[in-house]
Amino acid sequence: MNLPPDPIGVVGLADYGHRLRDGRTTVVKTVQDYLDRIERLDSQLRAFVYTDPESALRAASAIDALLASGTDLGPLMGVPVAVKDVLAVAGMPTRVGSDVDVEDLVGAEGGFIGALRRAGCVILGKTQTVEFALGSAGTNYRRGTPRNPRDPHHFRVPGGSSSGSAVAVAAGLCALAVGTDTGGSVRGPAAFCGIFGMKFGGLSMPDDGMFSMSRSLDSLGLFAPRAVDVAIAWEALSGQTVPSVDLGAVKLGLPRSYFFDGLAPTMAACVRGGVDALAAGGARVVPFDMSALCETDAIYTDVARPEALAMLGSERFQEMRPRLNPDVAHRIAAGLEISEQRYLAAQRRRQVLLSEVHATFENFDAWIAPVKQHFPPIYPGDLPTADAETAMESRCFGPTRPANIFNLCASALPIGLRHEPLPAALQLLAPAGQEARLLGLSIACEQMVGSASLPDMSSWLHST
Q1: Which domain of life is it from (predicted)?
Q2: Side by side, which strands form the sheet with 425-431?
């Protein structure tokens, strides 16, 4: 049996909406195509941890009936969506990537998932995540690591922690996917998998019904093949209009401090090519330095690690520790070494620097920077040595934490396959609350730099 084509990923949400409303397709057919693709491909990709085909098809049939009766719920009506398994979805289990039951820390389905339902989305299932959303490689040695669909020959990591959501979009297993981002967990996987990812500002969307790795730094986000698809979703969910942006009137800040440290030469060449393309398109790119950015990692550690430990509770963590992924347990245990005074000092310093960082945007429409330092490495296996795990994790780092520390919204913009057969990406950053403007800018930039087309997954049917 041939693999059904991705019914939305290639054409986009707007075209799908036109075809749905003029009768060229139905929601049931679209959902069935995605379910068939999941059935054929996901045994290799491991993007999903739970699907409910019967429920999805019932919902699709109900939406078709609504549309036939003259009820139109808007541009997300009938769009199949996957949800990172740190958010509660009614009728589906929430495992947060763990063998340990922490569903009591998640709660009931929250406002963001409810908004997707009211907009007419069909939820296909839950996607894999790094345990407790705590890791940048996308690995989960106990419950399964999703495979990056960009390389049919080698098992490469997808980036984390929203690993399954990025893989599902890149492989054409859903049209839109929900992720969360505490230090790069949407932007990193988007970059590694060659799709568009957007991290919203911390308070821009309701975050109830979500496992919180760090209450100070967590934010919601979305994945789609292109910026315009996330823009359509943002308009439908927020009620805001994404403006058209003239790249010739844009001034982009290029922060040399922190963001370009440790950049691999080939990645640096890709980033330079993307920045040069935007400058050729009319954008004014202005390098600048900011010493405050160099404090990012220290503040991140002193805030995120204690908050992760506090979410679980020290006693509960010690009890569950033998059943956790060793790498995740090690990161949480770091919170035991950080005193309350040190945590509070980091929060105070963060607030001081936050105003300094936001002041730079009086001179720039956005910042532009790399997302990752390296291209996605090969997965070392479900039982790696400590050295192999550490080496892989070091190659998955990227300068994404400032967006969370300083409450910025940020997008990961694929810049195509330039110097390698793997994708690279640029990061656009602006203050929280400017999501609509940043999406308009992302669309304008995407038109200049191009993007990496979605991979042809038909070859995966015959690969091992």
Answers
A1: Bacteria
A2: 48-51, 122-127, 80-84, 176-181, 219-224, 196-199, 408-414, 425-431, 366-370, 251-255, 284-288
Burial 364-397 (b: 16+ CB within 10 A, else e): bbbbbbbbbbbbbbebbeeebeeeebeebbebbb
What are the residue ranges spanned by the domains of the chain?
13-294+345-460
Instruction: Return d(Cα 453, Cα 379) in angstroms, integer.
Output: 23
**Nearest alpha-carbon partner for 202 in 328, 426, 354, 356:** 354
The answer to whether the Cα torsion of 411, 35, 49, 422 is positive or negative is: negative
Q: How far apart are the C-alpha atoms of 211 and 86, rounded to whole Å?
A: 5
What's the confidence (pLDDT) of residue 316? Answer: 97
Model pLDDT, residue 99: 97
Active site (annotated) includes residue 161: yes
Element (H, E) at 270: helix 265-280
Contact 87, 178 (CB under 8 A): yes
* Given the residues 98, 161, 212, 216, the one annotated as active site: 161
Strands 366-370 and 251-255: what pairing?
parallel
Helix segments in 119-224, DSSP class H: 163-170, 187-193
Taking the C-alpha atoms of residue 162 and residue 85, their distance in angstroms, rounded to an integer, is 9
Structural contact between residues 420 and 112, judged by C-beta atoms closer than 8 angstroms: no
In angstroms, the CA 128 to CA 213 distance is 16
What digits encode the pLDDT tens for the residues 324-353?
A: 999 999 999 999 999 999 999 999 999 999
Query: What is residue 420's predicted lDDT score, i.e. its pLDDT?
Result: 65
Active-site residue (options: 163, 185, 411, 451): 185
Q: Which one from 84, 126, 199, 372 is the annotated catalytic residue?
A: 84
Give dist(CA 458, CA 440) in Å, integer: 33
List, for residues 161-199, the tens digit of each pLDDT value: 999 999 999 999 999 999 999 999 999 999 999 999 999
| Overall average pLDDT of the 250-268 stretch | 94
Crossing angle for the helix pair 227-238 and 111-118, to the nearest 10 degrees:
100
DSSP-assigned beta bridge partners for residue 81: 123, 176
CATH of domain 13-294+345-460: 3.90.1300.10
38 to each of 58, 77, 213, how far by Cα in Å? Answer: 18, 21, 29
